[in-house]
Amino acid sequence: MSLPKVKQDATDARLSALTLPAGGWADPARKDALSRVQAMGLPNARDEYWKYTRPDTLVSAEVQDAPAIEAHEAPIFGERDRLQVVFVDGVFDAEASDDLAMEGVTIERLADAPDIHWAKDVYGVLETRGQTPVHRPLAALNTAFATDGLLIHVTGKAPKPIHINYVHKGAQSDAILHHVVKVESDCQLTILENGPAAARFNKVIEADIADTGTLHHVRAQGRDHDRRAVTHIFARLGSESTFKTFTLTVNGVLTRNEAVVEFTGDDAKAHIAGACLGDGSFHHDDTVFVTHDAVNCESRQVFKKVLRNGAVGVFQGKILVKPDAQKTDGYQISQSLLLDEDSQFLAKPELEIYADDVACSHGSTSGAIDEDSLFYLRARGVPRGLAEDMMTVAFIAEAVQEIDDESLQDELNERVTAWLARRRT
Amino acid sequence: MLEIKNLHVKLQEEDKQILKGVDLTVEAGKVHAIMGPNGSGKSTLSYVLSGRDGYEVTDGSATLMGEDILDMEVEDRAAAGLFLAFQYPVEIPGVGNMTFLRTAVNAQRKARGEDEMSAAEFLKVIREKAKSLQIDAEMLKRPVNVGFSGGEKKRNEILQMAMLEPKMCILDETDSGLDVDAMKLVSEGVNALRNEGRSFLVITHYQRLLDHIKPDVVHIMANGRIIKTGGPELALEVEHNGYADLMAEEA
Ligand SMILES: Nc1ncnc2c1ncn2[C@@H]1O[C@H](COP(=O)(O)OP(=O)(O)OP(=O)(O)O)[C@@H](O)[C@H]1O
Ligand SMILES: [Mg+2]
């Protein structure tokens, strides 16, 4: 089957600007991914899955300029006891990174892992599974062309989190990173991520969580106004495993975060949550696809968006319950707080259920700040701006609370409060 | 303290006049009560004084300690010493009671050019005051008014008043929804705050509250105006005879 000409041309243009990293165990997976990209073609505005978000600047051969801006504050998570790994414009920074050694975890780099590697059972494998029933060509592009990334094998209870800090310097940097995480039975890890990463960033995480394994993932995407990013997280969950991911996004002209979660073992739990604050030319898209293919699993999607000055927020969330996935508990809520009439929230919640004994619910709302609450706060002497900020933080609290670790909740709330205060003055 | 002259107020959205010339002066250190039939404009008066949107002052004035308050922002009126205990306190999910009150106390102090209260000091003071109103620590941690019973909400209003130490306190039906014991508690809370620098305007339907909080002056409001002013005995008269006679007198 051949692609429409426009799509074919755009795909060719992008591919001709990239070179396949050569050598090693990942070779077959990369070549396979490349042929998938060629068969699917890269997304364009006509694709149903990209109805609310224009993919052209994520696909184009050239990168739109995005100068890195001065940070207002020290990087988030910086004060914690953690193992830090730094990438600058997608390039590993050995100087700034900690020693890649921690009890219970083996960390290697995609760019220099030995020839035969455990990761080959995961690399591109979960991404490939995630290509049905919906195509995600930018993830396949990532598998083919990723220049680096971390290969994290969790074989114990990690004593501290791995913190991946993505520094952005070049105004035209185009970074492609691919991480693989394998959590063994009874093992546990928290991954923290932050930073604007690059002018354009394409990132994939594949997380394979064995029976009774636990993975927590908390990230803060932020800062640079003009940066663009498309990220995918593919998670496969074994029995009684737990996966919790939360993303806070502030700033960024275009962000598309996809989470593709598949339950393959019974009694597992996945929480996928996010909050974003957008101002002006900000466009943020959360696209989530949860597949229940096991019994008695629980999935929760909680997304909150605060939008102003014409910012746009998108939520596409789907829960697919396969015929044998009885006793599924699926929940999904997406809400937006529109601070003015120019901002827009576009939501497409979907349930597709083939099992009969399930409890699934979803909801989506959009609204302004509650005037009665605002008056109440002001009548007690809280100035209007501060009162609005308090209500904004309160609005996203329900999503932030999806994070288990309260100190992380607090740290994110502080960031949000500081961001709001800077906007106010 | 509070001087209201010939106050005329209509709804912003529709052509409906609600206050039709209210005259009322509350002296420093005094407690005034307002009674009056449902819909006579009592809450509207309290909202207009505190600056809620949706009303338009078409005539008249209101000053707090000589300062015109009608043009001030809501928060500035609060910092100037005005406090309204709401007839229907608002539930605000996600905003912690403590955080809210500390922010409010310090915002007011800042607006007045005073030093902010430290977290430790705040904690000490609020614990003390909450205890006397029988508000437990767990309630303080909850989001503002969320899941509070009607009576708990009213007690929370009085706690806020005690923390903010306003000059002019307007209590809009603080007694409604309170059981007998809670009414006593709340009244004690209010009485503890009485001093010569602080005034109260107590809106109520029932004489019973006024047994606990003894008013100096009682006003009857009907159809957007104060139709009669007298001593505490006026409240008793209303209790026994209702408003019909008073309104007939007026007409
Ligand atoms: N925002 C509004 N929209 C429409 N009507 C209003 C509004 N606010 C007040 N009113 C009307 O104004 C009149 C006075 O209302 P208000 O709440 O001040 O009465 P009240 O004296 O406090 O009554 P109650 O004793 O029942 O509390 C009523 O007829 C009410 O319906
Ligand atoms: Mg009323």
UniProtKB/TrEMBL annotation, chain A:
Origin: domain of life: Bacteria
SUF system FeS cluster assembly SufBD core domain residues: 170-395
Domain (SUF system FeS cluster assembly SufBD N-terminal): residue spans on this chain: 29-156
One Pfam family it belongs to: SufBD_N
GO term, biological process aspect, one: iron-sulfur cluster assembly
Sequence similarity: Belongs to the iron-sulfur cluster assembly SufBD family.
Protein name per Swiss-Prot or TrEMBL: Fe-S cluster assembly protein SufD
Originating species: Sagittula marina
UniProtKB/TrEMBL annotation, chain B:
ABC transporter domain span: 2-248
GO molecular-function terms, A-Z: ATP binding; ATP hydrolysis activity
PROSITE patterns per UniProt: ABC_TRANSPORTER_1 (PS00211), ABC_TRANSPORTER_2 (PS50893)
Signal sequence residues: none
Keywords, sorted A to Z: ATP-binding, Nucleotide-binding
Pfam families: ABC_tran
Family label: Belongs to the ABC transporter superfamily. Ycf16 family.
NCBIfam families membership: sufC (TIGR01978)
Record-given protein name: Fe-S cluster assembly ATP-binding protein
Species this chain originates from: Sagittula marina
